[in-house]
Design a protein that fits this description.
Layout (H helix, E strand, L loop, with lengths): L1 H13 L4 H23 L5 H15 L3 H14 L4 H13 L3 H14 L4 H13 L3 H11 L1
Helix pairs in contact: 1-2, 3-4, 4-5, 5-6, 5-7, 6-7, 7-8
C-alpha cells in the first residue's frame, strides 16, 4: 500500500487534484492505517507464548508436525488473540491431514483477527478437503 501512495503522489504532481488519484491514495492510506492499528492491537506479544510459537516453527521446519502442534497449542492457550498462532496450528493439522481440527483452528484465527487473510485461506483449504464446497466458496468471498 505504501507503493500505491507513492505512485499516487507522483501522479498528483503531474495532475494535481485528480479525483481518482486522490480517492485511490486515501484508500491506500486507510489500509495502511488499519494495518498499523492491527499491529498495535496484536502487540505486545506474550513472551512465553512467542517462545512456544518459535519452538513450534523450528519443529515445523524440521517436518516434526506433531511436536510443532503441541507448541502452537500452548501458544494459543497462553495468548488466543494472536491469529498467527492459530494459523500455524491449522498448518500443522493440514500437514497431518486433520481437516476438522484445521478448520477449527482457522476459525479461531479469524475470530482473533477478522482482517487476517491467511485465516480465511486456511479455513477454505480445510473446507475443500472436507468437500464442503459451498462453505469453501463463501469463506473465499468473505476473506476478500
Amino acid at each position: 500500500w505504501q507503493a500505491c501512495v507513492a505512485t499516487c503522489d507522483e501522479g498528483l504532481q503531474v495532475e494535481p487534484g485528480h479525483p481518482d488519484l486522490l480517492q485511490l491514495k486515501q484508500r491506500a492510506q486507510d489500509h495502511l492505517q488499519q494495518k498499523r492499528q492491527r499491529q498495535e492491537r496484536n502487540f505486545p506479544v506474550d513472551p512465553d507464548a512467542h517462545e512456544e510459537k518459535e519452538a513450534g516453527n523450528e519443529f515445523y521446519q524440521a517436518g516434526n508436525y506433531r511436536a510443532a502442534l503441541a507448541h502452537y497449542e500452548r501458544a494459543t492457550q497462553m495468548d488466543p488473540t494472536q491469529p498467527t498462532y492459530w494459523s500455524n496450528l491449522a498448518a500443522c493439522h493440514e500437514q497431518l491431514g486433520q481437516w476438522p481440527a484445521m478448520a477449527r483452528a482457522a476459525r479461531s484465527g479469524i475470530d482473533a483477527d477478522p482482517q487476517f487473510v491467511k485465516g480465511y485461506f486456511r479455513l477454505a483449504v480445510a473446507q475443500q478437503k472436507l468437500q464442503e464446497w459451498h462453505a469453501c466458496v463463501a469463506t473465499c468471498d468473505e476473506g476478500l
